[in-house]
Amino acid sequence: MSESPPPPRVSLRAIFRTFLLIGATSFGGGVVAYLREMLVENRRWLDDEEFLSALEISQTLPGLNATNMSIIVGDKLRRVPGALAAFFGMVLPGTLVVMVLGILYGQHSHNAWVAGALDGVAAAAVGLLLAVTVQIARKELHGVVDVVIVLVTCLAVSELHVPLYIALLVIGPVAIWLYRPRAAARRGDR
Amino acid sequence: MSQLLSLLGVFGLLSILAVGGGTAILPEMKHLTVTRLGWVTADQFVEIYSLGQMAPGPNMLMVSVIGYRVAGYLGALAALVGFFLPACLLTLGASRLWVHFAGSPWREAVQRGLAPVAIGLMAAGVIAIAKVATRDAATIALAAVVTVVLLWRHVNPALLILAAGVLGLLVLRG
């Protein structure tokens, strides 16, 4: 008879607690997987399509994926207060832990055991970053043009030491121009 | 005071340049904090980055530790505010604007064009950390094993990070 009831308004406290949980349990840089699990599967605040569209935005905009996602999702649920609740939930646990680790590190950085453990973690971090980069590249790169843009960007920053803002201001617009609507449509026609 | 302002400035600038996330700005962050300003040494930079890996949430929260070493607790706060305030405001504004451009072919172009740029920057970030973190056979082997395992199987990265820390404690010490 009647329409289904509108989704219940999510409380700020629920937003904060949910993102606090994600912020406290997501280790090793795989925040996206934790976000999807919690927001789509568990809380059902977003469906898959909404989640992917928020993820696209947060990947395209500057800033960290995890905090961009918390801002976008919090804003969608409860506007600015929701964004604040989600953001602080996301960063609070990690900030406290890393500060405690940082203070301990300051006191024990000359300890050979501590240095050894950190060297091991750093080496593993290289592997982790490399694996994540390869996984994203496999999903996002579609042709020679993409590969050339990747190489030019990487070489400019890594080997030629071009400042990041110059690299972005020059390569960014060129890359967008290469995929400009008309060119894409023309390529599609053939 | 001037230290706090430069922390705000440096991390504020880095955050709005972070197309491709935290990894993408590692080379520039290392250049600014190590070479230009001498806040930390290259080894300390990588060790602080490792601390970020061991904490939950985004590993870039480690900017607070750099801030703390420069100017104590206020320094940590300045680094965090600098790193998050501009980028979060930008995201809030731009994501609302972004919704208005749904279906615009230019939105598609921006997304398609910036994806490979972001990946190139991420690759440069990996190189920046690798140059310091993998300088001998043992650490290169460890990084290679972690890469292969992660690409091959769905393993929780936190377990690998933990295992590498324990291994480093036993093998890489001294």
Brief overview, please?
Chain A has 8 helices and no strands. Chain A has helices at residues 12-25, 31-42, 48-60, 65-108, 112-140, 144-158, 164-178, 181-189.
Describe the structure.
The complex is a heterodimer of chains A (190) and B (174). Chain A is mostly helical and 190 residues long. Chain A has a domain at 1-108. Chain A has helices at residues 12-25, 31-42, 48-60, 65-108, 112-140, 144-158, 164-178, 181-189. In chain A, helix 1 (12-25) packs antiparallel against helix 2 and helix 3 (48-60) packs across helix 4. Chain B is built from 7 helices and no strands. Chain B has helices at 2-16, 26-36, 42-54, 63-100, 105-133, 137-152, 157-172. Chain B is globular, with a radius of gyration of 18 Å. In chain B, 57% of the residues are buried. The model of chain B has no long low-confidence stretch (mean pLDDT 93). Chains A and B meet through helix 1, helix 3, helix 4, helix 5 and helix 6 of A and helix 1, helix 2, helix 3, helix 4 and helix 5 of B.
How far from one another are the termini of chain B? 38 Å
Low-confidence stretches of chain A: none
**Which blocks of ≥5 consecutive residues of chain B have pLDDT under 50?**
none
What class do helices, strands and sheet pairing of chain A give? mainly alpha
What is the succession of H and E elements of chain B? HHHHHHH
Give the rounded overall mean pLDDT of chain B.
93
Beta-strand residue percentage of chain A: under 5%
- N-to-C span of chain A: 51 Å
User: Which percent range fits the helix content of chain B?
Assistant: over 70%
Secondary structure: number of strands of chain B? 0
By DSSP (H or I, 4+ residues per run), the number of helices of chain A equals 8
The helix-and-strand class of chain B reads mainly alpha
Percent range of helical residues of chain A:
over 70%
Encode the helix/strand succession of chain A as letters: HHHHHHHH
Shape of chain A: flat
Query: How many helical elements of chain B?
Result: 7
